[in-house]
Amino acid sequence: METKKEEDDLTWSRETIPRVMKIVSTKLPQRDLVSLLLVSPWLHRTLISYPSLWLVLDFREMNKAGDRLTAALSLSRYQHVKQINLEFAQDIEDRHLEVLQNKFINSLQNLESLNLNGCQKISDKGIEAITSACPKLKVFSIYWNVRVTDLGIKHLVKNCKHVVDLNLSGCKNISDESLQLVADNYQDLESLNLTRCIKLTDGGLQQILVKCSSIHSLNLYAISIFTDKAYKKISNLAHLQFLDLCGAQNLSDEGLSYIAKCKNLVSLNLTWCVQVTDVGVISIAEGCTSLEFLSLFGIVGVTDKCLEVLSRFCSTTITTLDVNGCIGIKLRENPSDPPWPQKEGKKRVSFFFTLTTLPRSVCITRSMGKILIV
N or C: which end of the chain has fewer CB within 10 A? Predict the structure, then answer.
C-alpha cells in the first residue's frame, strides 16, 4: 500500500506536475518562469526542454542589468532569444553591449525586439555594438536617451534592415539627418515615435511622410517647430490609425484638412493645438468617420458647432472626446441639444469639460437618443 502511494507521488512529481506547468508557464512572466526552475529537478528538466519558453529576457528596472544580461546569455537555454527588455534598467553600459557583440553574437541572431528605454549610459558606441549582433531586429526603442546622435541611427539602419517599429522619443540630439536615414532605409516602417525630438524640422519629417507610407502610428508629441508644410504630407499615410500632435502650435485648419484625408484614423490628439478652430475639427469629423478618440484639450477656438458635426459623422464610433479648457464650448441647459443618437451595442461617449461655470469634470453619455449630463 505504501509502495503504491510512493509510486503515485513519484508519477505526480515526474509527469503530472511538469505537464501542467508546461501549460501554465506559457502565460507567466519570464522572471516567474526562472523561479520555477528551483521547484524540483523534474520540473527544471521539463521547462528547460521547451525552447519556446526561453525567448524573452526581461531585466526591466533591475539593478546590475548589464551583468545579469551577459550571465543569462551564457546559458544554453537563451541561445535563441527574440526579445530583450532593459527598460529603465540600472548599470547597463556600452561595455556590456560590446561584450554581447564579442561573445554572444550567435545567441542574438534571432533577436527581434530590443528595449533600451531610459538606459542613459548607452551611447552611439553601444548602439553600434548591439545592432551589429542582431540583423533580424524589428522593434527598437531607446526612449529618453540624450547621448545617442545621428551616428547611432546610422549604425542602426546599416546593421538592422528590417525595423518596423522605432521609438526615438526624447532623443534630443538627433536631427533631420536621422530622419533621412530612416526614410531611406525603413520604407516599411509601421510605427514611429519622435516625441520631444526638438532638433527636427519640416524637411526631415517630410522625408518620412513621403517615403514611409505604411506608417499606422505616428507620435509627434511636444514638437512645436513643425508647420503646415510638413503636416500636409501626413495625408500620404493611408494606413494611419494613431496620430499624436499634442503641442503642435503651428498646425492650422488648413493643415488639419489634409490630415482629414487619413480615413482610417482612430485616435487623434490635438491637445494645445492653439491655432485650430471649428473649421479644422469639422474637416476631421467629415473625413475621419472611424474616429474613436479625439482630444481638443486647451483649444479656445472651438465651439459647440464642431460638436454638432462630430455628432453627425462620428456618433457610431467615437467613445471619448476631451474638451477640457475649450472655453468656446458651452454646456446647454437642455440635455437633448445637440442630439447624439444612441446606437445599440455601441460604447457610451464620454465628454470631459472644465468650464468656469462648471468647476468639476462632467461626463456626458448617450442615452435614449439624447445627451445626458451625469
Answer: N
| 3-class SS letters over the chain | CHHHHHHHHHHHHHHHHHHHHHHHHCCCCHHHHHHHCCCCHHHHHHHHCCHHHHCEEECCCCCCHHHHHHHHHCCHHHCCCCEEECCCCCCCCHHHHHHHHHHCHHHHCCCCEEECCCCCCCCHHHHHHHHCCCCCCCEEECCCCCCCCHHHHHHHHHHCCCCCEEECCCCCCCCHHHHHHHHHHCCCCCEEECCCCCCCCHHHHHHHHHHCCCCCEEECCCCCCCCHHHHHHHHHCCCCCEEECCCCCCCCHHHHHHHCCCCCCCEEECCCCCCCCHHHHHHHHHHCCCCCEEECCCCCCCCHHHHHHHHHHCCCCCCEEECCCCCCCCCCCCCCCCCCCCCCCCCCCEEECCECCECCCCCEEEECCEEEEC
The dihedral of CA 220, 223, 224, 230: what is its sign?
Answer: negative
Nearest-CA neighbor of 252 among 183, 301, 314, 324? Answer: 301
Amino acid 307 reads: L
pLDDT digits (tens, 9 = 90+) for 239-259: 999 999 999 999 999 999 999
Tell me the per-residue pLDDT of 71-119, one tens digit each, with 9 for 90 and over. Answer: 999 999 999 999 999 999 999 999 999 999 999 999 999 999 999 999 9
Q: Are the CB atoms for 308 and 330 separated by under 8 Å?
A: no
Candidates 268, 313, 310, 276; CA nearest to 293 is 268
